[in-house]
Amino acid sequence: MRSSWADLAANSAAENAPPTSAANNANNNNTQPPSRPVYVPPHLRNRGPTAPAPASSERFSAPTAFDNSGSRWAPPPRNDYRGRGGGGGFGNRTGGGGGWDRREANPFADQDDSEEPVTQEEQENTGINFDAYEDIPVETSGGNVPPPVNTFAEIDLGEALNQNIRRCKYVKPTPVQRHAIPISLAGRDLMACAQTGSGKTAAFCFPIISGIMTGQPAQRPPRGVRTVCPLALVLSPTRELSMQIHEEARKFSYQTGVRVVVAYGGAPINQQLRELERGVDILVATPGRLVDLLERARVSLSLIRYLALDEADRMLDMGFEPQIRKIVEQMDMPPAGVRQTMLFSATFPKEIQRLASDFLSNYIFLAVGRVGSSTDLIDQRVEYVQESDKRSHLMDLLHAQRANGVQGKQALTLVFVETKKGADALEHWLCLNNFPATTIHGDRTQQEREAALRSFKSGNTPILVATDVAARGLDIPHVAHVVNFDLPNDIDDYVHRIGRTGRAGKKGLATAFFNENNASLARSLQDLMQEANQEVPAWLSRFAARSSFGGGKNRRSGGRFGGRDFRRDGSFNRGGPDYQGAGNSSGGYGASGGYGGGYGGYAGNSAGPGVTSAWD
DNA sequence: AAAAAAT
């Protein structure tokens, strides 16, 4: 399925050809290349003559000058493309030597490539268990909330994207996707809270890819300038998570002509620069490396139409906020309201929501699922273990697991510890005791980190000792057991850690070692477990009662967890953000239960069970 | 106090 475009690009950048791309060029059909680079809209790139162009393609067939109306920034494409017959033509992509490098490895290469449709039953066996997502509470607030969809077919994402959705074996959208995709396609800013493992990546990737495919072409920087201008930026807090998002996004954008590039620290920058020079529509990055690229003027954000922050609450907490502000507010990114901004996380403390509203314009708040995360899919246990007993206690767990064969043969165990040194020490000790373990933390080289993750995923070392670097976002199939060897100080971190198991509707087990050192977490842990219908040990309740006076920063009342739009909270609402939709929160659909009507009247402690406490 | 994130 090679096009003339591909030939052209391959010629212009042949020296960069990685060996692996040769195989993908095998089915090259030698269509006559155009004599000079001509802009090809993403949805037509990579289209071989054998693949018939969709009927709608005529409107792109006569390029005319792209009029950007003198505006510095072309407005982000809104949800009008279905009606935009032959609007603006396309200018040439003049920036990087004529256009994108079309060579594209098949991201589905490691799966059987049968194009057979997947039945619902199959999906439930191998993929997402949708029964686990029935009947979950949904909250939206903000003005004019677009209604959710029930199927991918209801949304016009384009045939290429639809085909990738089939290749990914997604039969129907998860709840967060059902709600978030229409909101994003409508061009609205979004703050979305959804449980760990519920499909957030696709929820922001699909609208971005679709929007880039169908949107106006970008103005490219002048010739000779090596600065590249992505149209979408996805930021995440760890390198491995950026890698994972990149891999996912590559699958979703396969043969759509939309190019996804990843940039993160700890890896040679030259290779990343080469990838960028081959063209980039969607840049996935960690903040530090992106700042570096911006300061070197190798990347410009001037054409950004979509900004997505994954693990957005983490991205805006103390450690990251200055960098994010620099990237979003102090470089050349179009301002909120011009670009489209999407924030996703499983947790969204109210104070972080307030910070986040700086980056949003007239946004919709969406909360899907119970509490920050913990579904009843995760069996949560807390055991009282003194520091000195932790190792032998872990050993007991691992022995029992080995004997019982928890969840079958390939069960993986992820052990969280507090410090990098502690991770190394525990790994060493486990290995001495014939438990094959490896470790991932920030003192290891990037190579070591990636090798550790690979080794864990493959089952080669079925025990991974990790710091919080692995707490968020990583999608590791077959993690049967998460052990909080050291509990975190923040309940949100706990939520994300245990969310490494029980993903895509599957069950999981989480065991925590609790002792006096964790007293400050007792109350919030107890509340969280109660909300997730978990059995709370009596001793933990006593700890909770003892530590509850004086509140503590982990107190959940006041809404540490996602699930409530802070704009509804009177104390946050004064002189606050542009919240125009307070009055019509439910938008005529979705669950509005739990609210006593109006944002002042939230009857949080008296509304029906199942929603109330979870949405505190 | 710790972890993460650029070189």
TrEMBL record:
Species of the source: Trifolium subterraneum (Subterranean clover)
Ranges of biased composition (kind: Acidic residues): 110-124
Annotated EC: 3.6.4.13
UniProt domain Helicase C-terminal: residue ranges: 377-544
Segments carrying motif Q motif: 150-178
InterPro entries: DEAD/DEAH_box_helicase_dom (IPR011545), Ded1/Dbp1_DEADc (IPR044763), Helicase_ATP-bd (IPR014001), Helicase_C-like (IPR001650), P-loop_NTPase (IPR027417), RNA_helicase_DEAD_Q_motif (IPR014014)
Residue spans of biased composition, Low complexity class: 9-31
Composition-biased stretches (Basic and acidic residues): 562-571
A molecular function GO annotation: RNA binding
Domain of life: Eukaryota
Protein name, UniProt field: RNA helicase
SUPFAM superfamilies documented for this protein: P-loop containing nucleoside triphosphate hydrolases (SSF52540)
